[in-house]
Write a structure and sequence with these properties.
single chain, 579 residues, mainly alpha, Growth Hormone, Chain: A, 2 domains, two-stranded antiparallel ribbon, 23 helices, globular
Amino acid sequence: MATDGKNRNGEVNGVNSVRNSMADNETKVEEGKKVEEEPDHPIDKGWAWVILGSTWFIAFIVIGIAKSYGIFFIEFLKTFKASVSATTLITTLQTVAYCGASVPVLAIYIKRYDTRNLAILATFGCALSYGLSSLADSITFLYFTQSLLFGAMSAGINAPNMIILGKYFKKRRGFAMGIVASGNSLGGFILPYLFRYLFDEYGLRGALLLTSGISLNCVTAACLLRPTEFYSKKKARKPSKTLGVGNECKEQQEKLLGDKDNHIPGVDDSTNISLSQPVLSTEDKTMGKTNFRVRSISYSPGHIDPTSSVSENKGSSSVLSLSSFTRYLSNGDIFSLSLQDMDIMRINSQQEEVKDQTKKPLQGCWRLCRYLTERDIFNCNLFRNKYFLAFVLAHCLGSLAPAFNHIFVPAYARDIGISDQNVATVASVISLADFFGRIVAGTLADVPWIRKTYLVAASQFIVGTMMIFSPVFNNFYLLVVFAVLYGLVGGALFTLFSPIMIEMVGLTNFPNGMLVVLVLQGVWIGGNASFMGYLRDLTDSYIVSLQYMGATSFISAAIFITVEVVRRCTAPTNQKDSV
């Protein structure tokens, strides 16, 4: 009896030592998980600033050329003798191509492949579109080069660049987005003078060919867009020093179950250890390590009757959760699985089968939504967020003025008798003021106590007011005043789009949210481009088109304010400060 007592005491000490060893290892596993949760790529530092510089340069060239389209628009009208509605169709088809190409890019490509290769291909395609446009002999040819080709290639530049920029910046995300957006405006300020000079010296075809050469410089900047997966692969090549982290830990995690009848004095009643295979410490002479052999340890207070029904064993899942704690030993010992655990797993599988049989099969669009969500193609749960839907509506309405202002304002200036050189000056002043306005908007977006939606709503209200009273600005100097005021506030909607979207749906769902906005915005802008061109041909003036854009901006501002007020009123008291 004394010998049995000593043996049992020794076994208890062995169990305690095993528990202590496993507890230490569990702590290391948890520490390892915390380390893994930290991103591998630099955030707000290091190569993130190279990413910012590259995306800024691409925006300066590609978007700057697009913002200078008002100069091209006038030359297209003069060279091809086409109507305003036919020439505006270039913008319509370009928007449709851009949104159509954005669907596979945002839904599939950027989730599975390298965005840098896409950026290189897209920047080269944009340069090619201007090179081919120099061969155009009619406005119809431009529908394929300027509209379809340029629009499709732009989808591989704008949205992926915003996504990779959002990954590299967190605390300074609003500032980074503002800097990149300012590149659009600075390009729109400098390039109109350059294009005016090229048109005067080399004509339309020579200017388009030189524009293609300028765009090729973006290929070099696209090569610097290092994807975040680069750092993950680099870290994976390094040997992991953390114990119990990775696939080896998962392979050695087992359920430790035992027998209730074999109780050891001195051990907690809720823990049962099988005496058929005692816990021993043995020396491995070849490896020089201490090996613990654990045959079966149970953390369950009782047995499950395998003959009982499923309904009688609803608590079996809790028993399994108590007994299924994972432990890691230093040498990868083999653990046994008891019959009791097999019974529990069989009962749980029966419960799952009963639940699956009671579910009603999904039909129609619900089945499609489930398929897209499960395949990680598109997260359809976004449509359950009512604030996201309201944001999409307000953004689409408000995007009409920023999208067409750089086209219709220069054309309006030419209609009222302003010279071509002064028209280029008006377009440049708009872009210069927009340059400073976007930087200010991005900086204010990072201020904690300033709501981004209020900034956007205020900017849309000012834009709407100026567009409604556009007939007042009927000479060059008044148009310069218009250009300054509009430029300071007009770009806030596009500048704060990414920070607001990421804040609303999260960085993971940001591509999905951007996809929804781009598709609906493309339909809205594409349809209104030809409609506003038709209004110009019908009334022989751009004033009605400008006032129409102002009305949509007013509606957008009202929606933004309403959504923000509803959010603050419906939020819990302890969350109103963070909403």
